[in-house]
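quick one, 145 residues, struct below
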Amino acid sequence: MNKLIYPLAVLLLAGCATMEPGQVSLDQPPRAMAARPERKPLTPIDQIRNGMSYDEVMALMGREVKIGFSESDSSAQSVGTVAMRNPYRIEMMNAGDTPHLVVYFLTSINKSDGEVTDDELTPVIFKDNVMIGRGWDYIDTLQNN
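---
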């Protein structure tokens, strides 16, 4: 009797499992499962270069950035674009005795919380209406010189 119960119990407890193509398998390391695909920036920030004028940068970057979509009315068939003005913020900064224009562009959305934080902005720095650098590291360099 035991010879019949043990194999039957093993079959019942083992169960069946199948995986669809594209599902995560158990042999993948946890880091690979948690990895996110690289997202492209919301703006063409990688196309601007030092030496470009303020007007050239603004023409390339545009005056608004599309950050998502929303239903225009109660119908799911009607969808509208959610856009924010860009640049998000503009301010003057002095490096030594030289004034610099710092233009902050919204280039990514890291958390959909309705807030725009500095890590979602890319500063672009102009001196005499000419782009001389971009990024937070460049601002740190200017402030420390």
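Strands lie at 64-71, 79-85, 89-95, 98-106, 121-127, 130-134.
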